[in-house]
Every structure is written in C-alpha cells, then in structure tokens.
Amino acid sequence: MQKFLVIFICAFLMLSFDYIASYPLFDQPPHFPKPIYNFNKNPLDSAAIELGRALFYDPILSRDNSISCASCHSPFNAFAHTDHDLSHGIFDSIGTRNAPALFNLAWHKLFMWDGAINHLDVQALAPITSHKEMGSSIKEVIEKLNASKEYKSRFNQVFKDPKITSSRILKALSQFQLTLISAGSKYDLVVSGKDQFTHQEKNGYELFLKNCNSCHQEPLFSNYTIQDNGLPLDSTLNDLGRFNISQVESDKMKFKVPSLRNLSYTYPYMHDGRFRSLKEVINHYTERLYKTPNKSPIQDNPIKLNSNEKVDLIAFLLTLNDPNFVFDKKHQFKKISMGAKE
User: Fold this and answer.
1) C-alpha triplet 72, 78, 80: angle, nearest 5°
2) Dist. CA 174–CA 112, nearest whole Å
C-alpha cells in the first residue's frame, strides 16, 4: 500500500509539473475549473503572444486599414466597447450586435452571441471577413503581412519560418487572447480568503446563488450555453439569435450567456446593447420577462426581489469588477516594430 502511494504521488507530481512547465504563460486561477482549450495544439509561447498582441491592435487586418480587433474590444472596457450599442465597422457600417467582452476565453465552449464558432483558433475569421466589421479576407490579410518586413521577421521568430499562413495568424491571435484572464476581483479575493464581503454584498451573493447561478455559474459567472432569456424581439434588427445558424425553430431568440464579471466596464448589456444600466437588467428579470416559446423553464416567472434586495444584488455584482485586469499594461497596445518600447 505504501509503495503504491509513493508511486501515485510521484506520478501526480510529474503530471502537475508537466502542466506547469508546458504552459507557464497561462495563469490558471486556483479556484477555476480546468480549461476547455487544448493547449497541446497551440502551446503558449511569449513571442507568439506578442505577435498576437500586435495583430490584435493592428488595423491592417481590415480592408481599408481602419479597424482593428481593439476597435470593438478595448482593454479599458474589459475588451468590450461602451461607446455604442452595436458594433461599428469599416466605412461607418453598423452591425447587429453589441461587441462582447473578451476574457477567460480558455473556458468558452462556443464563440459569438449565437455560438456560430466552436473554436477560438478560427473565431477571428468571422470579424475579418464580415462586411459590417473588417470587410477583408484572409488572403488579403496574408498579402499585407507579407509586405511588412517587421511582420515577416516576427513570424520567422515565432515559427522558425517566415511563411505567413492563415493558421499561424489565427493561432497567434488566440495566444494573446488566452492570456486575457480576469480573476482578480474582490469576489476572487474573498474566495481565496484575502478579503470579506460587506453585509450588503453577502446578502446580494445569497440572492445571486438563489436566482442567477443556474446560468451565471461561479466562478466564471456563466455556463456559456445558448439560452432564451425572455427578451422581446427587436423589430428593427430582427435578430433571431441561434436560429440564424441552425434554422431550428426551438433556437429562436437564443443567445450565448455572457459572464457577469467586469459589468462596470462592459455596458451596454444584452446581445444588442439595449440596456444601459444594471438596474435595467435586473428590472427585466424581475418585471419584464417576455413570454417567448423557447424561454428557459427556470425563467417562467419573474424573479421576486424588493427594492432593497435589488440594491444588494447589484452590490454583489460590483464585487466581480477586476480593475487590475482592465488596466494591466501587458494587455494594452504595443507597436510591432522590432525592439519597440512600451
């Protein structure tokens, strides 16, 4: 028995060391579940992360060199956008959805509001090729990057080969985005025993567990599934959500459940940015649930909260803000020029 225990412990330590040694650039929060992303197919590398960072902020990915990923996903808004309800693209075109926040992507099962993309390594193709966003093509992007000595040098540094391919572009973008981990909020400090909730925040937390945790499961504060949350159809946008992809009747008005982390930085809320405040969001769930045929059974009836409980719930939700993540310079813009300084 003792011999077996020694072998088991040694094996466990070897596996743990292998995980840490393989992915030293991925800061796994101890209270988070195992990531869904398969790092074995795209092992993190500091040079690749920096390349992805440069690409993320470079408008070269768009048709007219005017729109970058960061144009709709600002680091100061937890990689969301607060200036407009709907995303804006080249030639002042306006999309049909609000730009979602980008963080903790290694735990996402699906991407886009309708779950149209099932892997982070191909997600960037959607905005690059959308005529309402970047309006380009991967072929055009490759041609532009090949014309840049700086980029050819950087790709050679990362891949030991100056050839620029769609796979390498997309994997570099994934590498940078995988480092966008938000796990330093007051909530996280409470979980780790380094802080405590106030009486009001504790009341709000209990209300959250009772009424919200089924879809917004802690510690990620989303189960990242596709749900109908009782929003009425916007007759102007006529966005039917997942149905646009699947053409399955039961998917009408279903959208991906967003994380509740960093809500102070990521307004407006919902897939079309229709709500400007947390008060409006809570009022929707407590007073205005629309009787849609595909709504989750747990939302058959509005949540019952009095005015004081609504305030307590918001107090808890504010503990999910992570200013250290939002203002972390390692996530912000950096020039591609070799040897450039911050």
Assistant:
1) 25
2) 15
Q: What is the pTM of this model?
A: 0.88
Read off the pLDDT of residues 90-147 as tens digits, 9 standing for 90 and up: 999 999 999 999 999 999 999 999 999 999 999 999 999 999 999 999 999 999 999 9
What φ, ψ does residue 306 adopt, rounded to 5°?
-85, 175
Cα distances (Å, whole numbers) of residue 50 to 101, 117, 340: 20, 24, 12
Q: Is the dihedral of CA 185, 186, 187, 192 positive or negative?
A: positive
pLDDT tens, position by position, 226-236: 999 999 999 89
Taking the CA atoms of residue 279, residue 285, residue 291 and residue 295 in that order, the dihedral angle to the nearest 10 degrees is 130
Residue pointed to by tokens 């088991």:
8
Quick one: which of 214, 185, 217, 181 has its CA closest to 201? 185
Segment 187-194 mean pLDDT? 98
Instruction: State the Cα angle at 158 between 142 and 59, rounded to 5°.
Output: 40
User: What's the confidence (pLDDT) of residue 336?
Assistant: 56
Instruction: Write down all domains in the chain, each with its CATH number in brackets.
Output: 39-182 (1.10.760.10), 186-320 (1.10.760.10)
